[in-house]
Design a protein that fits this description.
Structural class: mainly beta
Strand content: 35-45%
Radius of gyration: 21 Å
Strand order of the largest sheet: 11-12-13-14-27-23-22-17-20
Shape: globular
CATH class: Mainly Beta
Number of helices: 3
Order of helices and strands: HEEEEEHEEEEEEEEEEEEEEEHEEEEEEE
Length: about 375
């Protein structure tokens, strides 16, 4: 009996060690070049033995995500560039694609680049016609984040000073990327010393067939959303929350992205495809599945979980082959898709939308998980 117990304890110990080893993610860093002003940039590699993520301090950018298919063959499933120079050249915030970057202070659009807070009108930079997009001309996508290694990932910190890009308050933002068992988790946190508005997201472009390997029209998308926010001719929300029923915007069941993208629909014409915010049925506040994407040829599956109230699905409509990405591949029309978890576009100008205000003494915290598997 004593021998049996010893063997049992030993076996259990081995199992616990194996589980611990499986859960541990290897995190390393190395130089990734310098900005034109000489600022050094680091890139961190997170590897959990199955998925590998590479994230750099410039823009807090997800540079690559290597994910296995149903046969165990890994491929990079996010669009981007092979080196820092590509990101710097693209990150001018005028026509930029924002490949893989952290977006702030305000993700998505602010109409006419103005909003009123506490009775005061604020003006932010215009970089999308008459509007501000993804933080304007100086967004979180083209700043250098301070980084440190944490368990299973990295922590990035950036202080956006009062008045930067027109926004009030000294805003301290902390973003944690962690990778465990095929789940890339992003924790966003922020505090301010003045009333301000805030909307944070990540702008990765996914192609589950592998970046540079055709378009995403055959990807099957599911969105847990019964409504979306229609836009005007300049892609600003009208304020309506419209049912997806009997429209090309109904993705409540798995649907090929290309099946209705060219339908004769005014909203599709305005977005040149899908470039809209869906109102998630989970309503925000608790972590829940918002979207799922399945690529039939590779078998790769991406599940997106979030506690945010909305998700912007963008079908890469403005990619036109002029940008050459990794390996010199020209990124053609609709060669990547974005699923940006966030609050609704232009919320500061729509009181009926969920509030994006952050006040002193409050702490903003939000979680998004990109979960990868294959079938």
């Amino acid at each position: 009996m004593k021998i049996l117990m010893t063997v049992t304890v030993s076996v259990m110990g081995l199992i616990l060690c194996a589980i611990t080893a499986e859960a541990k993610t290897n995190v390393t860093s190395q130089p990734f070049g310098k900005l034109p002003d000489g600022t050094p940039i680091e890139i961190y590699t997170l590897n959990d033995g199955r998925v590998e993520a590479r994230i750099m301090t410039y823009g807090g950018t997800v540079v690559s995500l290597r994910v296995p298919d149903r046969k165990g063959q890994a491929a990079d499933v996010v669009l981007g560039f092979d080196n820092l120079d590509g990101y710097v050249a693209n990150n001018n915030n005028k026509g930029t694609a924002f490949f893989g970057a952290l977006i702030g202070r305000y993700a998505n659009r602010i109409a006419h680049a103005t909003f009123t807070l506490d009775g005061k009108k604020y003006e932010v930079p215009k970089n999308d016609g008459d509007h501000s997009l993804h933080g304007g001309t100086h967004g979180f996508n083209n700043v250098v984040w301070k980084a440190k290694t944490i368990a299973n990932g990295i922590e990035l910190t950036y202080l956006s000073k009062d008045g930067e890009a027109g926004y009030p308050g000294n805003l301290t933002t902390v973003v944690r990327y962690t990778l465990v068992k095929g789940n890339l988790r992003i924790d966003y946190s922020a505090t301010t010393d003045k009333d301000t508005v805030l909307n944070l997201t990540n702008h990765s472009y996914f192609n589950l067939a592998g970046q540079g390997n055709g378009d995403i029209l055959g990807h099957q998308l599911t969105l847990d959303a019964s409504r979306f926010t229609p836009v005007d001719a300049t892609l600003i929300p009208t304020g309506e929350l419209k049912s997806v029923e009997l429209t090309p915007f109904d993705f409540r069941k798995p649907t090929a992205i290309g099946s209705r993208i060219n339908a004769d629909d005014e909203q599709l014409h305005r977005g040149r495809g899908y470039d809209h915010n869906w109102v998630l049925d989970a309503k925000g506040g608790t972590l829940a599945e918002a979207a799922q994407v399945y690529e039939p040829n590779s078998g790769r599956v991406l599940r997106v979980l979030t506690d945010q109230p909305g998700i912007q699905f963008y079908s890469g409509n403005f990619l036109d082959g002029t940008i050459k990405g990794k390996g010199g591949v020209a990124y053609q029309h609709r060669s990547g898709l974005c699923l940006e978890t966030q609050h609704f576009p232009d919320s500061p100008n729509h009181p009926a939308f969920p509030s994006t205000e952050l006040k002193p003494g409050q702490k903003f915290h939000s979680v998004t998980v990109y979960s990868f598997s294959a079938k």
